[in-house]
Amino acid sequence: MTPPDFPPDDDDRPGGGLSGRSGDDGAGRGSGEDDDDCGVPEPIAPHATKGPERLPRDFSGKVPLFPLPGCVFFPHTLLPLHVFEPRYRAMTRDALGLEAWDEPGGPVRAGRRGERLIAMARLREGFDTELTHGEDSVTESDRSPIHDTVCIGKIVAEQELPDGRFHIVLRGVVRAAVKSERVTEAGYRLAAVAPLPDCCGPRPDLDRPARTKQITDRFVGLFPDVDLPDVLARAFGRCVTPGMVCDVVASVLQLSPDESQELLDQTDPDVRTDVVLRHLRRHLVKAGFKTGRTGMADPQWN
Carries keyword Acetylation (predicted)? Predict the structure, then answer.
């Protein structure tokens, strides 16, 4: 879709304008527990938080969009990026709150408060890139349509190169719906978004801990050298939820962009466990296991 124009604002840059609080919704936490109560380990990167990432409580509601073809980014996972296009260099500088860069003269104006957030958006089929007509920036009429659901990531590590390019690492925070957007003066797209926290439907008969164990067992069947429970515990402590497990597993499986987008669109973690288990079963059968019902089955290579 191509959302309607972004509402007028005196400041195009993330960190200003729309007000609001993400509260626990941005984290999908909802329990009100402090990080220390979850027994979470130390941060995994210089600017990561302990345990799952959460939106800042004073989140502006605006976030830069980074649209890419075939790229589906999940909460609670890591995504390394090499940022080289001028508009996306400007986007990264604004997200980090750095001075603007006026090539070849260097920094020209002070940066404002950056929220360190970027939303990864998957371009709709048939659109391999933004329609820039050979220019560095995209115009309002050139915006390529994106899928409805995006993933907001936090820049947890960054390296600025001498020529203005960046190496950054995003850590997924939360799903979000794009409500409206506009093109900034720097040429990148800025969106007003609504976070989409996980929300379980009524399934009183579902044993969620057992379902989570099913997923981890089947994952270990495919990747016996990876101790998934230990990886999750070291990253998130006792804050691990079935939805988080699904997101991490989905990011590792070689799913098609459409299959990944289906999981990103789904905010009910119980439904996500159904879908992820189906994908794991298919991968196990393809790998030669008898039934795909357990990650501990003997492989059949004939």
Answer: no
| Residue 137 · residue 155 · CB < 8 Å | no
Contact 39, 237 (CB under 8 A): yes
If you average pLDDT over each of 16-30, 88-102, 269-283, which comes out highest? 269-283
Do both 214 and 153 map to the same domain? no
Whole-model pTM: value is: 0.78
pLDDT of residue 185: 92
Say whether pLDDT at 191 is over 60. yes
Rounded to an integer, what distance in angstroms lies between the CA atom of residue 153 and that of residue 78?
9
Same domain, 95 and 129: yes
| Residue (of 159, 84, 122, 86) closest to 258 by Cα position | 122
Say if residue 85's pLDDT is above 70.
yes
- Say how far apart CA 276 and CA 261 lie, in whole Å: 13
Q: What is the CATH number of the domain that holds 261?
A: 1.20.58
Find the mean pLDDT for residues 269-289.
Answer: 92
User: Can you spell out the DSSP letters for 65-124?
Assistant: EEEETT----TT-EEEEEE-SHHHHHHHHHHHTPPEEETTTEEEE-------EEEEEEBP
Say yes or no to pLDDT of 87 above 80: yes
Whether residue 268 contacts residue 201, with contact meaning beta carbons closer than 8 Å, is answered with yes
In a domain, 109, yes or no: yes
Report the CATH number at residue 75: 2.30.130.40
Residues 50 and 143 in one domain: yes
**Structural domain span for residue 168:** 25-196
Length of the chain, in residues: 302
Look at 104 and 182; give whichever has higher pLDDT.
Answer: 182
Same domain (yes/no): 70, 167:
yes
